[in-house]
Amino acid sequence: MERINIALDGPAAAGKSTIAKRVAAELSMIYVDTGAMYRAITYKYLQQGQPEDFEALVNETTLELTYDGEKGQLVLLDGNDVTDYLRENDVTQHVSYVASKEPVRHFAVNKQQELARQKGIVMDGRDIGTVVLPDAELKVYMIASVEERAHRRQLDNEERGIESTLEQLKREIAERDEYDMNRDISPLQKAEDAVTLDTTGKSIEEVTEEILQLVNDLQ
Ligand code: C5P
What we know:
There is one protein chain. The chain is of the alpha/beta class. Helices cover 49% and strands 17% of the residues. It has a 5-stranded parallel sheet, with helices on both faces. The protein has a 3-stranded antiparallel sheet with strand order 3-4-5, covered by helices on one side. Helix 1 (16-26) packs across helix 9, helix 2 (34-47) runs antiparallel to helix 5 and helix 7 crosses helix 8. The structure holds cytidine-5'-monophosphate (C5P). The site of cytidine-5'-monophosphate has 14 residues, from helix 2, helix 4 and helix 8.
């Protein structure tokens, strides 16, 4: 089979990264979590006391993705592994704001396009099918009910030792979606040629299988 790129977009906590990882492993492709890039820049923004000059912030930043057999994608920010900090509440609360800034998007999108140039990439995010990889061979727009997304995120947080309540997560997810869908630059929206996949009530295995079937159908 020819090398392809897969774009996986959708609202917060819709299960994109879990599924993208599985699909990438099944197809021997590389998984790229673009949200982690915006989170890393947000982490730096917070460390630096929330400066408003985003151009300067990204100009002074190096961001690299590496892969560890066990942990998966690691994010190196200015040479330091910050992966473990990226899901902290503080980062999550500020990431949509930082990701709405033009210099930040320009910086991240360039890197993402570079990573995908050789093909063989499963990339998840908000604007992958619309802006980053408009020519991706397969585009999936993944959705799920807010209740289910909050529930999944809570289990995820428990595993990572991050405290949260279901109500707090529901609110946070809804607010982030609202912000991501209504920003001026590259808002979250379904690409015209994307396949919508509602994962509510479905297992990880079922959703992975559906995407593998879509890949099979490409041939
Ligand atoms: O996917 P994740 O929840 O880690 O993304 C965190 C935030 O990063 C999103 O809420 C969104 O504001 C931003 N993001 C984006 N474009 C992407 C990926 C993430 O704007 N491609």
